[in-house]
């Protein structure tokens, strides 16, 4: 049985306050594990997520089916694009060593900034991406936001700072 690494990410920001949040769900999963199965795991864990990282091992009688990590963070004085980029960066930085990884995001801006666009903003995050992604083979997939991709929807919900008002806010 082979495993693959996939990540789903989302960021959010409230222009009125400048507070934002991001979330990445990373799964090292057997090839016979569906996205819906990962979403069910996240749903079960959603009431007891830690403020920054929760790791879940999903097993059955045959052994490990998936290792799922839910990562999240929050910031002040930020933008939506920065939060989208932070979510993707967190997924790469969570890996112990370079690998092939599929990252699903609803942000064309963040995907473009990390692949082939010539950006003029958030250069600190682009530079960080170039450093931390060395050795990785990253395959990006864009999905439309709020279009029913269950794991992107979970990232959206978890990244929503308004749903998590007691979490410590970090710099953006």
Keywords for this entry:
Nucleotidyltransferase, domain 5, 5 helices, alpha/beta, 172 residues, globular
Structure description:
This protein is of the alpha/beta class and 172 residues long. It has a single domain (3-162), classed as Ribonuclease H-like superfamily/Ribonuclease H (Nucleotidyltransferase, domain 5), CATH 3.30.420. The protein is built from 5 helices and 7 strands; from the N terminus they run ββαββαβααβαβ. The protein has helices spanning 35-45, 80-93, 108-115, 123-132, 150-159; strands at 3-14, 19-30, 53-60, 63-76, 100-105, 137-142, 170-171. Strands 1, 2, 3, 4, 5, 6 and 7 form a 7-stranded mixed β-sheet that branches. Helix 2 (80-93) packs across helix 3. The longest helix is centred in the middle third of the chain and has 14 residues, at 80-93. The chain is globular, with a radius of gyration of 15 Å. The model has no long low-confidence stretch (mean pLDDT 89).
Could you write a compact summary of the structure shown?
The chain has 172 residues and is α/β, with parallel strands linked by helices. 31% of the residues lie in helices and 35% in strands.
Question: Which helices and strands appear, and what pairs or packs with what?
Answer:
Blueprint: E1 3-14, E2 19-30, H1 35-45, E3 53-60, E4 63-76, H2 80-93, E5 100-105, H3 108-115, H4 123-132, E6 137-142, H5 150-159, E7 170-171
Parallel strand pairs: 1-5, 4-7, 5-6
Antiparallel strand pairs: 1-2, 2-4, 3-4
Helix pairs in contact: 2-3, 2-4
């Amino acid at each position: 049985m082979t495993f693959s690494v996939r990540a789903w990410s989302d960021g959010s920001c409230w222009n009125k306050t400048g507070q934002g949040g991001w979330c990445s769900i990373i799964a090292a999963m057997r090839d016979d594990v569906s996205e819906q199965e990962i979403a069910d795991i996240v749903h079960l864990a959603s009431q007891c997520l830690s403020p920054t990282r929760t790791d879940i091992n999903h097993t059955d009688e045959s052994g490990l089916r998936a290792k799922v990590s839910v990562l999240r963070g929050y910031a002040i004085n930020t933008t939506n694009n920065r939060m989208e980029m932070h979510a993707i960066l967190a997924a790469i930085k969570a890996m112990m060593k370079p690998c092939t990884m599929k990252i699903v995001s609803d942000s064309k801006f963040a995907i473009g900034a990390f692949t082939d666009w010539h950006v003029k903003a958030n250069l600190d995050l682009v530079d960080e991406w170039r450093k931390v992604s060395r050795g990785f083979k990253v395959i990006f997939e864009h999905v439309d936001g709020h279009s029913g991709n269950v794991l992107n929807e979970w990232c959206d919900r978890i990244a929503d700072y308004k749903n998590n008002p007691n979490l410590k806010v970090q710099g953006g």
